[in-house]
Please model this.
Amino acid sequence: MDTLSEMMTAISTEETAVDTAAQALTHQQTMYRTALANAGSDLQRDALREQYEPALTRAEREAGMAADQAMATVRRALDLAGTVNEPALPAEHQATAANLREFIREDAASLPLSDLVTRVRTAVAMGDQPRQWLYHRYLRSRLSALTDVEQMDAEESINELYRLRGRIGESLRDKRMEPLVPRANALSAKASPLRSKARARRDAERLASASFLPVGAVRVPAGVGE
Model:
């Protein structure tokens, strides 16, 4: 699994690659459009297209690749950051949790709800992380399986178990990866428009071809090549 520092480095690398590709694409698009705008005839325009298109196509391809790679990194970063949504048990407590697992599973499944509240409160009050982690895990199944009658008969205990489970989840939640989210979103905000910009000319050409229209009759999105 990627570490936080490795993921941050990957995001920084992709940000640089996206910025570089965006600058190169804008430069080539500007040269291409300026040359065509200054062409005096269709023959001259065709010659200029032949001259400038290879470099522009290469810049579009490289920009698209940079954007795709950046978005792959965004997905990986957000997937890694998603692990903060579940409680994390420190390594030093995992052996204890393994020994307690079946006992806690049985408690969570079969104890009367009022007794279960007492057990969970005790684990929270004592700061017993292995028990808290296990109760958080196994309470979900018990609470989701309650019948309507059970919910009416033990509403107070049920509400307290939900409250305790939320408290445990917050206290044990692994917050180390949280800084990835804004960084990943910022990279996505750069990469997604670049991908659209890299594809805009080819998309317009394909649309024109499918519609039997001249390429110039299809409007390229504003900002492309500006």
Summary: The chain has two domains: 4-84+178-217, 88-172. The radius of gyration is 29 Å.
